[in-house]
Amino acid sequence: MQPSPEQSPHHVYPDHWEADVVLRDGGTARIRPITTDDAERLVSFYEQVSDESKYYRFFAPYPRLSDRDVYRFTHHDYVDRVGLAVTVGGEFIATVRYDRIDERGRSASVPADEAEVAFLVQDAHQGRGVASALLEHIAAVARERGIRRFVAEVLPANNKMIKVFRDAGYTQQRSFEDGSVHLTLDLEPTAESLAVQRGREQRAEARSVQRLLAPGSVAVIGAGRTPGGVGRTVLRNLLGAGFTGRTYAVNRAFAADQGTIDGVPAHRSISEIDEPVDLAVVAVPADRVPEVVADCGEHGVQGLVVLSAGYAEWGAEGRERQRELVRQARSYGMRIVGPNAFGVINNAEAVRLNASLAPEPPAPGRIGLFTQSGAIGIALLSGLYRRGAGLSTFISAGNRADISGNDFLQYWYEDPDTDVALLYLESLGNPRKFTRLARRTAAVKPVVVVKGARHSGSTPPGHAVPVSRVPDATVSALMRQAGVIRVDTVTEMVDVGLLLADQPLPAGPRVAILGNSESLGLLTYDACLAEGLRPRPPRDLTTAATPQDFREALTEALADEGCDSVVVTAIPWVGENGEAESGDGEVLATALHAAAAAGPAKPVAVVHVEIGGLAEALAAATSTVALPHPSAEPSPAATPSRAGAATTTGHDPARTPSAPGTSSGTATAPIGAGTDGGPGIRIGRIPAYPAAERAVRALAEAVRYAQWRRQAAVPGKVPEFLDDTIDEPGAAGLIDALLGPDPDPRGRPLAHDEARELLGRYGITVRPTLPASDPEAAVAAAAQLGYPVALKTTAPHLRHRADLGGVRLDLANEGALRRAYGELTDLLGKPIELQPVVQAMAPRGVDTVVRAAIDSAAGAVLSFGLAGAPSELLGDTAHRLVPATDRDAAELIRSIRAAPVLFGWRGAAPVDTAALEELLLRVSLLVDDHPEVVSIALEPVVVATQGLTVLGASVRLAPPPARTDLGPRRLPNY
């Protein structure tokens, strides 16, 4: 919406202030600037506000707005006077306005940095978090326009508005003057205000997902008149799952007297339904979807699952159709799964929703599954179904134009019915937010991710998202930093998910191996070593071992304090008559269940070869059985951390997040005791694998995740350098001067001396170099720097290429320098081509490289590796997000494969890793403090036994990219 020319002759309409937001109850609304075209909307809005709310706003009875009021409230210059409105269905539900004032409270202009602010929210929408969202956005607008403080006068009885200001997290002052509360808010974001904002974001987005997964009523729009077809299939699946709410079939082709279809009420339009409808499943052609969305919006539907295809996956025209679909739905306060979606499932007993096309509905369980691909979703559901795994929730989001994996991480974070989150992603719409949410969720439950389209170099069809330039290896490293378990295939995802959903986390990497096949045990042993685990020698029970032998051996292994997990290997065994014993799989499963349930809580995995019924029996739902104790000594009392399948209810956002292996829902009996306190034991699922490598890989991921969890419990710190080596204001001034008043959006590289000066502001010393345009200049430079020296070319194609002869070291005198200069130019070319320089020699050490770069999608990334072939040829580089903590810096230098070189490999003296960690932290701090520094490369950094030397540095400056993760809450617009 654009203003008329007379409204703002000097300031154009700020369309970047427009935003879609999720409110406290999960509904959406739009925030935008107020324009002169809004006069009628403003008057209509004001008429629907109660007299009490008007009194709180104007401190006096104010039944209607005068023409002067309407003009004043709709005419803004977007600098000194700004008004924002919240709209639903195109109509105002709330407004906020600020007016810049001077120290005496009178109207003012720049450079005055204080403004008076006032809110008004329709009574019907109070309590939805509207004012809190408006405060975030008007504060961001004010900061953009140079305003640093808000002042507000609030009547003491207006408790709701006082609470909005008090809970915002900004630094504030309050006083009581002339019968009103005088509030002053400092608009500079604080750690508290950011935490408040993100907490509200989490609750709102989780609630918006809950409205989709736990509706009280569902309408299938496009349910066919005859069996078959997409809509009719969804209707059949809804009924087959036993959905606990009301179900309706909608199709404009139904006869007027249709009455029912498949036993549910049939209607030609959703408007004919006399009761509220919470969720609509849309299965009509794309050209009819806008009409359906409008009908749903007018009827008050809360959310849509759009199965219809023909959107962004069909090209530019479809992409614009998809954007319009999202705009239309959000204008009515609705969120969308899809379009081109496969559907949603919620197995909570209180809901039992299967609004999907899934041919094999999953059993109830503790795994949440999100996928962007319907085909992958079918494969995953089928694989989980075959292996007896259960799901809490399933979502196939298709083009995920609105609801995304980030929203479901918000939901799963506190969902008591979900212990493990599995995500198949083909694109990351907001990588910074994903990393933040994944880190928080991974701190309480595992997050397992498969990333598709890793090497295609383009966004998958239908996914209109920002493209990141970060290599896939870097993305993987950043996921690991956030605690995400990154796997390569959907098979690995299922393998890992099954282990984490049903087994406790291992306390360490020590693995006991036992079984009736020496060969299979050795294969498992080798696989453990390959995955970095610490296996004990396999225990061979021989092929004559019985299920009772397995039980006793497993009981002993679990009781052993020197073991953290157990892998059981099994092949079919033969009886005395030389034939396989019948029912061997079920009998062995019962024995293993008994031993696992009675022993200490340690993860158990089974590798089996062609034992009929074993995998199914191990995956059987939790039950209580009575079994005799094994002949071995009883193990210590088990702790109740091995989760069985508990009876659960719908999602309650007020519950605390549950950790893996525990349930915040209905309590289960402790392991080692029967549900009635009798001699029975509680047994849970044990994951079974057809190959040793698959079982061990899943176990290794669990070990690494458990280690991350333990470390995350005591997070690292971003150090504050208290000496005078950090000059943040000086660096900021230098950057402003180097960029100039009108910087090139593409940025500019810094010259050597400019880079040295900027890095020096953060205590990073770069050894100086002097140009050597001819032998005489080289000799003069060496005399100034002092011998011994190095002679190096700086031509781009020879930079850091000692292997090509472009670097000559340890030149001890003038004669050696002149000879090296002649050899260099004879071999490689003229001085004007080589651009040689002279540099004083550094102490001997290990050559490393430190880099930092800002990606528009992923954010600032800090990287480390050894200089030369290890990092350039083998890709042996570690990465962490900025700002890096002291722990991140320590992990960076230890996580590369060549790390032993730094710690005394083959008898060499260890280098000064403490100095290296400090350098990494200083680079991280520089990039974090000054986003204009878009790239830094320190190469080589020679790390000696005492100290280090930075021999080369390149820095690039550019106008800082937008930081969408730090601004007010808003939904993405792709």
Please outline the helices and strands.
Blueprint: E1 19-22, E2 28-33, H1 39-47, H2 51-58, H3 67-74, E3 81-88, E4 91-101, E5 114-121, H4 130-144, E6 149-154, H5 159-166, E7 171-177, E8 180-186, H6 191-213, E9 217-221, H7 230-241, E10 246-250, E11 260-261, E12 264-267, E13 279-282, H8 289-299, E14 303-306, H9 316-331, E15 335-337, E16 343-346, E17 353-356, E18 363-371, H10 374-386, E19 390-396, H11 405-413, E20 420-425, H12 431-442, E21 447-451, H13 472-481, E22 485-487, H14 490-502, E23 510-515, H15 518-530, E24 534-535, E25 539-540, H16 547-559, E26 565-570, H17 584-598, E27 604-608, H18 614-618, E28 623-625, E29 681-683, E30 688-689, H19 692-712, H20 728-739, E31 748-749, H21 752-760, E32 769-771, H22 775-785, E33 789-793, E34 807-811, H23 814-828, H24 831-834, E35 836-840, E36 846-855, E37 859-866, H25 869-872, E38 877-881, H26 886-895, H27 913-929, E39 933-943, E40 948-950, E41 953-957
Parallel strand pairs: 5-6, 9-10, 9-13, 10-12, 13-14, 14-15, 18-19, 18-20, 20-21, 21-22, 23-24, 23-25, 23-26, 26-27, 27-30
Antiparallel strand pairs: 1-2, 2-3, 3-4, 4-5, 6-8, 7-8, 11-12, 16-17, 16-19, 28-29, 31-41, 32-35, 33-34, 33-35, 36-37, 36-39, 37-38, 39-40, 39-41
Report on the structure:
32% of the residues lie in helices and 22% in strands. An eight-stranded mixed beta sheet has the order 1-2-3-4-5-6-8-7, with helices on both faces. It has a seven-stranded mixed beta sheet with strand order 11-12-10-9-13-14-15, with helices on both faces. Strands 17-16-19-18-20-21-22 form a seven-stranded mixed beta sheet, with helices on both faces. Helix 26 crosses helix 27. The longest helix is centred in the first third of the chain and has 23 residues, at 191-213.
